[in-house]
Amino acid sequence: xxxxxxxxxxxxxxxxxxxxxxxxxxxxxxxxxxxxxxxxxxxxxxxxxxxxxxxxxxxxxxxxxxxxxxxxxxxxxxxxxxxxxxxxxxxxxxxxxxxxxxxxxxxxxxxxxxx
Length: 115
What we know:
This protein is mainly beta. The chain has one domain (3-101): Sandwich (Immunoglobulin-like), CATH 2.60.40. 3% of the residues lie in helices and 47% in strands. It is built from one helix and seven strands. The chain has one helix at residues 73-76; strands at 3-10, 15-20, 35-41, 52-56, 66-71, 81-90, 96-107. The strands form two sheets. Strands 1-7-6-3-4 form a five-stranded mixed sheet, with no helix packed on it. Strands 2-5 form a two-stranded antiparallel ribbon. Strand 6 and strand 7 (96-107) form a beta hairpin.
């Protein structure tokens, strides 16, 4: 079962996190050749790509199981509210697994100017 989390991001902010893939003993999994998908939608059955969509195939340190996910200010400049999201991986063997899911809340930003 996928880990459940809640994310909160200010509208228009950039956001990034590093994911660490490990086996049951805590050893890094080599993710070379994998694909990581980040998808956020208003409803789970909305069609892809959803409100926010990222496909990651280039990783910070694949042999150590590290993958970075980054959202730009354009990605998060959405209607304030809550969205369902998940992070899925497709291994180099074609196996698809949901590793993280939950609710992404886009909250009101105070400063809107960029200069």
